[in-house]
Write a structure and sequence with these properties.
By secondary structure, the chain is mainly alpha-helical. Helices cover 66% and strands 0% of the residues. Helix 2 packs across helix 3, helix 6 crosses helix 8 and helix 7 crosses helix 8.
Length: 181
Amino acid sequence: MVGWTMASTDTGGNTAAGWAHQEITRYAKAASKGDRAAFSALFGLRAVPTYVSIACLAGQDAPLDALTIRVFERAWHRLPLLEQPEQFDRWLLDVVTEVTDAEPRPNLDETRGLGRLVGGLATLVPRHREVLLLRNVFRASAASVAQALSLEVDEVHRLEQISLELISEHAQPNQPASLAA
């Protein structure tokens, strides 16, 4: 994965993403030294993206609120081990992955639609998945995605559209041969 959020790709501070990265780094440094107010600020900045990531990884039927809390509890206990506060977002995504990997998965036989969706995602090349994830899960602007992936904004829009169409086509149930005219 390219990066969890756009904040982790721009450290210049001249953009909203740069400002966010600086704030997250500052709070992560303080929180790693036991500052609860800084950790609370990190929670405020990262709770929604964490929740969305958990929903994507564990599914909508998972106890999303409880898993989000579990991620931040684990993060709090592990923060003293954070060696690179400027990489907090990537580090937190590792915690999200650990927590969601431990969560029981729904039976894909019972959720065939989810299985088709996952199959559609698997057909995408990595660049398409990156664009789709950054634009639709993390709600990054097309300009930010273009900058992070060294693309033109028009190309980001094109890749996003193609990705959504491919997934949509794959997610449709197969029609019986007699109905496919």
